[in-house]
């Protein structure tokens, strides 16, 4: 996959300009112009809402094909915990992972392994660093971007721990270089992704992230599902290939991450509109009694990712059932000394802080910006305030902004257009009734008999 700012894209041929996606976008990043949807790059957070709702399958996420693994000498699949929720309980975790390996990978390392490490390291983050209350999880990149775009003042609340996927890749690459004498460029690490937001994170990591954390591609769960199903029927199961804890893979559902913080007041919320409501309360200072907020963009958590196959409620049930079975087997837990040691090396942290990505100023010149702001307010007051979306903008305010910024016209509003058409037809009929002033004059500009 090329380096992408966003993995969500539009197939123009399939788009009918129906405006369904426009109304579901949580950041107002979509416009419909000339009958086709357009994504405003600076506002898109890759949450995948438009992919879910488009009735014509015109919105998609760019991911890698399985064939890309052939570009590397040694390949590792790092599946998201959500993968385990895609299959009925009759398929053991060892069978699922053996089948995944049989598709051409040399090794499987579950992201649940990194999730367990990060989950258990959050308590150290509370004592080592100071965050405004509540500390916000960095796990869901769509929520982190939502905060950057819509709640820029809360950017400092997001903790700087790496996502489990990045940490899993880092530990794996380092081990392979040291133990198998491989060069970094020979190793292909592929994330099996439930969502567009993670696919974007793979292709566009934070600029200062270290090279060990590089992930070479993101393969969508939905693209790998059919071959995996086929392989599961015949694969020879490798005992012990699954080696992560139930707590680790429980990150697939909302509350999985915060379950590590037994002595803290935690709030976990899933679904982008619910997350927005809570962030509004945090922004208004109403939730400073909460220590930790885990917000996940998808309903149910990552099990609801837009690149999954199984119904999110069913997938959640499978994850919970698998976790119940595994909790009886606690030997998979990592040593606390190992976690603490890793934490102290600093490798669990993003080197750079996330910065606000708030809206672009209306104008570089302050005076001009104020004039534009007034113009927007005046225009908005003239518009009907119905936020119907028929103009191709998500609401009347957004259309007013687009007009002032030269990206739309007043007559894009169907109500303004209707009024203009009425005015015009009234004027036309008045003109027809009055008649042309020159009509009854002769060549010498003298009134004709009729007019006298
Ligand atoms: S939902 Fe959006 S992308 Fe899909 S057809 Fe309608 S306008 Fe086009
Ligand atoms: S909740 Fe999980 S699947 Fe959904 S956007 Fe966030 S990281 Fe991706």
UniProtKB/TrEMBL annotation:
Pfam families: Fe_hyd_lg_C, Fer4_10, FeS. Residues 371-430 form the 4Fe-4S domain. One of its GO terms (molecular function) is 4 iron, 4 sulfur cluster binding. InterPro entries: 4Fe-4S_dom, 4Fe4S_Fe-S-bd, 4Fe4S_Fe_S_CS, 4Fe4S_Ferredoxin_RnfB, Fe_hydrogenase, Fe_hydrogenase_lsu_C. It comes from the Bacteria. Keywords: 4Fe-4S, Iron, Iron-sulfur, Metal-binding. The keyword 4Fe-4S applies. Residues 6-35, 36-64 form the 4Fe-4S ferredoxin-type domain. This is 4Fe-4S binding protein. It comes from Eubacterium callanderi.
